[in-house]
Structures are given as C-alpha cells and as structure tokens.
Specification:
mainly alpha; 2 domains; two-stranded antiparallel ribbon
Length: about 200
C-alpha cells in the first residue's frame, strides 16, 4: 500500500471525504447505545498503545496510529494540519481530537483522559520521538511539496500502535549513518537529486 500525505490538489482525497462525516457526527447527538461500546479493534489498539513490550515510549494518552492512520485510513495532514505550509509538523490540538471523540469512544480510558485535558483546557504533553539538533533547519513543508511520503523519515506509522524511531542504516562513502543523522539525510538528498549544499540545512 502506498501511503502518501494529503494532496490538497485532489478534493477527492480521503481527508476531504472524512471531514464532512466528522462534522455531521459532531452535529448529531448519537443514541446512548451507539456511545456505549467501542469496537474490539479500538480496545485492542488502546491496549497495545500502552504495551510495555512494544518499542517506543508510553504517551500521555494511549493513541494508536495503527488504528487511526491504518485501520481508519485518516491521512497524516488531517491531524497534522499545516505540515504542508509550515516548517514544523506540529501535533493536533485537543479541540481537533474532541471533534471526533465528543461523539464516540467514551468507554475507552484514552478518550476519558483526552476529555479531562479538554475540560481543564490543557494541552497534551506528547513525548517527542523524532528530534534533530537545533543547528539543523529541517522544513516539513518543502519535503511534503517535493512529494516525499511521511514514512520516508517516520517509518510505517500506519502500522504502529506506539510511534518509535525506526532503525535504518545507510552507507555513505564507506561510513555508516543511522536514520536522521547527517549522512542519512545526505544519502537521501543525493538519491533524489536534491541539493547537498551546506546552506540547504544549516542557515
């Protein structure tokens, strides 16, 4: 399956098909029986998102990318909106999450924790997974515009219940470079015919 970020030039993309549905759900009060039980898949995904045996840290909320991006096929830019326009990817606001979960999932501990953040008007303090040194100027919007899949750097997040840094090693001039190290980025730039001038990333 080819997983690509949201293409804003294609109005028929999945995010545009999902968004009206979510708005409609937010406007209609569902009957109590519809709110009572989450699917077994959702319960299992929540359990796995806090599974200590899986790689990656436990986040403040047991959020599963495998459920949201994998099973439900919600595109990256639906939640990480603005990534195609901004240097940083950012994280979805509590308000964005509650747009869906005010209507369903109330029996899940993760949604109950989410609602507590919403009621207290506090941001969620997610644990950052992918971090570059401050002297590296990485721009998400340029990479999205160049057509790179989010998975190029972040790995197959649509398969992850807990997001973690996926190990990857490349060889550059006989020297090994791990993912997100300088040599790894240069290797990618060379392969894709992008600039490897110092000022491309250090300015």
């Amino acid at each position: 399956m080819s997983w690509r970020p949201l293409d804003l030039a294609r109005p028929a993309s999945a995010a545009f098909r999902v968004a009206p549905l979510l708005v409609a759900l937010a406007m209609v009060a569902l009957p109590q029986w519809a709110l009572a039980q989450s699917s077994e898949a959702a319960k299992e995904a929540q359990r796995l998102a806090w599974d200590p045996d899986l790689p990656g840290p436990d986040q403040p909320i047991p959020f599963s990318h495998a459920l949201h991006a994998g099973t439900y096929k919600i595109e990256c830019l639906y939640c990480h909106s603005g990534t195609d326009r901004s240097r940083v990817a950012g994280v979805p606001s509590v308000q964005n999450c509650m747009g869906c979960h005010s209507q369903f999932g109330q029996d899940l501990e993760g949604v109950q924790i989410l609602k507590k953040y919403w009621d207290e008007q506090k941001p969620i303090e997610w644990i950052q997974i992918h971090r570059l040194p401050e002297h590296v100027k990485f721009r998400h919007n340029r990479h999205v515009a160049a057509g790179l899949d989010c998975q190029t750097c972040h790995g197959p997040v649509q398969e992850m219940h807990k997001v973690h840094l996926v190990p990857e090693r490349v060889w550059v001039n006989g020297m090994p470079a791990q993912k997100l190290e300088m040599g790894w980025c240069i290797h990618c730039h060379e392969a894709k015919k992008a600039s490897i001038d110092c000022l491309t990333c250090h300015y």
